[in-house]
Amino acid sequence: MKIGLLPLARPTFDVAYAEEKLAGMLAVLDATGHEIVGPRSLLMEASLDALNAVGEADLVLILQVTFTDAAFIVEASKLNRPLAIWAVPEPRLGGRLRLNAFCGLNLASHALAANGIAFNWLYGDPEDVDLTSLLDGSRGVRRIEGSVPNVSPSPMPAEGLRIARIGEHPIGFDTCAYDKSALKALTGAEIDELALDDMFAAARALPEDAVAPYMEKAAALPNLKHMDAGELNRSLRLAGALDQLKTDGKYDAFAIRCWPETFTEYGGAVCGPVSMMGEARVPCACEADVYGAVTQAMLQEIADAPVFLADLVDMDVADDTGVVWHCGQAPVSMTDDTPMATVHTNRRQALLYEFTLKPGRVTFFRLSQAGGTPKIIIATGEMLARDMAFTGTSGVVRFDHGAAGVLRDVMNSGLEHHMALAYGDHADALRSVAAGMNLPLIELGVGQ
């Protein structure tokens, strides 16, 4: 068989470590005896030459070495060749996410499902994988749609939402795309579409005394003095700007394009302010994820507690656990530790919160567009008392229905990369919501 390689990466991750992982992947592939064609070095951006180099292969194999968005993978699928994706894990050492490859696989799965494209997938380290099932097609996705649960229905929580979408979602983040009229028909939510400059201008215009309450909140962070004063001030101004926009627009939640412009154009992270807003019961979704903001607001009402919009960034079937993470913006009531101030792992700007999620029962929920149709996706589990897996806000979870089954169903459903997390077991309430909204329900790991 002729296998055409596309090794994908981004320069904001640990390039040296990515090259080490790629070398291991290439060694395993070379040992299969198949003919390997295409680039053997990391592709940091879309390349027409690379697509041409693999266009006549029997199988196009995406090597998801670090996180990337899904745009190039969707383009590769248009070659009309069988498609496979191999993503690599990284050890949970308490440091930065050096690769974040699982999240790239997750974005690709959602985008390919939305386009009706089948693919094979594998998540495993070069040192202990068997590529047979990936290359022979037996690890292909098996699309699942769920069904409307036969339980007593309840009305959609948080009806009549007003949400400000600030900036557009990043290119290649199909997980964050939305249709304004379709969302209103489904949930009744009203969406105002604001520009990022509206938030930046409001932040810059705040008088210093208006920043003081947010500085007082941040003062509890014991290492705050180590943050750059200018970045810290600019970051906390974003909290004030969001509060002002909330009051002026009577918004219940926000969906914010958080990168790269908050760093490259404004000069301060919005992650710490998002943590503050979430703790105050004003959910903020990253990457302008409007459905994510609606999801958070719904779960917040059901749980009567702050919520955290998290990425699933690792699944360890042998340990039967997963890791949920985001840069540093979970509500502080979700930890038993002392939160610490930190900077963004890739962009190196303040202010972010760093802590490990506390042990306890948790529920994951997404009002989803997986596969191109609305549905509700849930999972339950136990957040474990484990050491910090990765910097930012993260936690290690043991799902009720097992890591292997959850991993399978994340891929098979085409789930978005953001799920809302709340403490407590709210599965019954969410089943009733699905029945009340007449939406199919997928419970990850249960088997469909």
TrEMBL record:
One of its GO terms (cellular component) is cytoplasm. One of its GO terms (molecular function) is L-fucose isomerase activity. Residues 354-442 form the L-fucose isomerase C-terminal domain. InterPro entries: Fuc_isomerase_C, Fucose_isomerase_N/cen_sf. The keyword Chaperone does not apply. It comes from Litoreibacter roseus. This is Fucose isomerase. Keywords: Carbohydrate metabolism, Isomerase. It holds the Pfam family Fucose_iso_C. GO terms for biological process: fucose metabolic process.
